[in-house]
Write a structure and sequence with these properties.
The protein contains three helices and no strands. By secondary structure, it is mostly helical. It starts with 10 loop residues before the first helix and ends with a helix.
């Protein structure tokens, strides 16, 4: 017989995901404020955005939560992010076309 119960995160996995998201934010901030490399600063800027989006997942990091609900929210966040980026890039391209026409 198949077990149709949803797979729970469990205490250890929930704590691991939560700590990973927090660590990503801390590493990103360290990369931004280090005075040595412009490349690390650039990577840190991208990681800050990713960590900010990942912080939306922290309320789902509980032992009673399911992996399915967690990944559903991940897909929603990624969809919104990609849509906003596409609109921003499209607007920039159209503005360039508008400026060339002047």
């Amino acid at each position: 017989m198949m077990n149709n119960q949803p797979k729970l995160m469990g205490s250890a996995n929930a704590r691991l995901v939560e700590n990973s998201i927090i660590a990503l934010g801390l590493v990103a901030l360290i990369m931004i404020f280090q005075p040595f490399s412009l490349t690390l600063f650039s990577v840190g800027c991208v990681l800050v955005v990713i960590a900010g989006l990942a912080n939306n997942l922290l309320p789902l990091c509980n032992p009673d939560g399911t992996w399915r609900a967690f990944f559903k929210v991940v897909l929603i966040i990624l969809t919104v992010f990609v849509t906003v980026i596409a609109i921003a890039m499209g607007s920039a391209v159209l503005y360039g076309v508008y400026l060339r026409a002047q």
